Amino acid sequence: MSDFRAVLCTVESDSHMWNLVYLQLLLEENGGDVVNLGACTPVRDVVEKVRSGRPDLLVLSSVNGHGAHGARVLRAALQAASGAAVPSVAGGKLTTAESDNDRVRRELLAAGWTDVFTGDDAVPRFVRFLDAGKARGFDRWHAPEAVVAPWDDVPLVGTEVR
Amino acid sequence: MPGHLDTFVAAQRDAGRLVVQPRMGFGPVATMRDGLERVAALDVPVVGTLTLDSYTRVGDHVTPLERLAAGEEVNGYPLVSHPPDATRELLAGLLGPEFPVQVRHGTALPQAVIRRSVAVGLDATEGGPVSYCLPYSRLPLAVAVDAWAESCRVLAGESEHGHVESFGGCLLGQLCPPSLLVAVAVLEALFFRQHGVRHVSLSYAQGTLAEQDRGAIRALRLLAAEHLADMTWHVVLYTYMGMFPRTPRGATALIADSARLARHAGCERLIVKTVSEAWQIPSVQENVGALLLASDAAQGSDLLAADDDPDARGFQDEVLAEARLLVDTVLDLDADVGRALVRAFERGLLDIPFCLHADNRGATRCAIDDRGALVWSQLGMLPIGGARSRSAGPELRSDQLFAMLDHVASRYDSLQPATPRRGAPR
After folding, report:
1. Which of B3, B4, B52, B10 is CA-nearest to residue B269?
2. What ipTM goes with this model?
3. Contacts of B136 in chain A (CB under 8 A)
4. CATH topology of domain A4-140
């Protein structure tokens, strides 16, 4: 018996598969019943799965450096389809430069993502999130605020959502 | 008479020299030209590469030009978007018998790429109906099969010496037992032949254990000789395609080992990775450095006859037996190789470990055994393994999967500084 139901996806431009294979195992070990939507996931497939399957958690993983853009697009599509209530997290290598991680985290949190997991300790932080979510509900999670460096208060270029 | 790529590779083979090749691709014509010029100028046997961008890969030929016009980067050369004359100028004075250029693109629907390649005088490409569909695309396999059949006919019909390299030896890049890589490479070559292509190469991705790789590559050559006697063919090795070592020392040692493996096993061509592979898209300089590194390492190594390589013998026999069974089983399904491939995946007779594509059954698993070799841990419906148990083994844990994905990188990253040049880990 599973503790929670999760939909696992990536962004349309990302053809990597190993991160999704790995995360499916990790989610299952932590009590998840996982629908893995596979590489290059079309936004409409994610929206449809969220609407029809009513999962407890949506997990987006991307490692090709364009995940931040894809995550914004997906969030907008979920909102347009009234699917925005599902707790949702994004992680991996979401930008081409590690130095953008904090800014991207801030933006995605502001856009409605429940939490964002990047960097060397992404996996252990994600597991702690799963533990807390199982105990209290994923929608009760309060993501730690991103560090705002004083030189880092300009928005990312290209934040518009297609 | 074969074209530039085949003629050049054959001449280097006769001279006992390994041909090296980068994966380089840049968006702007001038940058791409600079990269090609610097590769062509090298004093080692080298083939040039036009790696196409990821928009072209999915059939979007507008966005690359928009992004380039906006001064942004594109991760490859948008061959279909740039005007044909721009590409002809790009290649003018470079492309020729002494400097063949191959188009590398990654598209499951390659018709537009192939048509444009042929139009600008590029007759060497790579991919395949299975190898560019199941690992990278959501397209149904049957659709990719039709698209590749049409593309092969265009290439064969409109170029004198069209060459296609099967990417079948690189499925998902890592954690695939060699017999399936060998089988898919040979099957894709037979598919290319059915659709008129007469010049092919067969790929093989460096795995986790050199003895196993040497045995597998020899098995590939034996199987290719049996099936492709009426074609021009050679074998192209890929430097390890999985998680790459993060230390310069580890990455350098892995690249050099791939070059030695290529020579030992008689591969004609090597697609080289760069030292900075783990964390960024490599520059021209890094590509050039990696090509020289690989070519240098290859020069110190000679062809190793199977008889002089007892460590590899068992692997060769095993891979040859399994791959032959896979190929024969698939060819028995239908006289049309494309339909046979589709049916084989439907029935799980071909089944790529860990591949999430909807047309892949996903009942097989690969593991790394005590020797460090890639082995089947779940056979699924594969027509191999004889009486071995078909029941699913113990559940694979995420940390075990991660350890396998990281196996090569961590081994090379832990190399000690004093490691002598020949001291490759076994």
Report:
1. B10
2. 0.90
3. 15, 39-40
4. Rossmann fold (3.40.50)
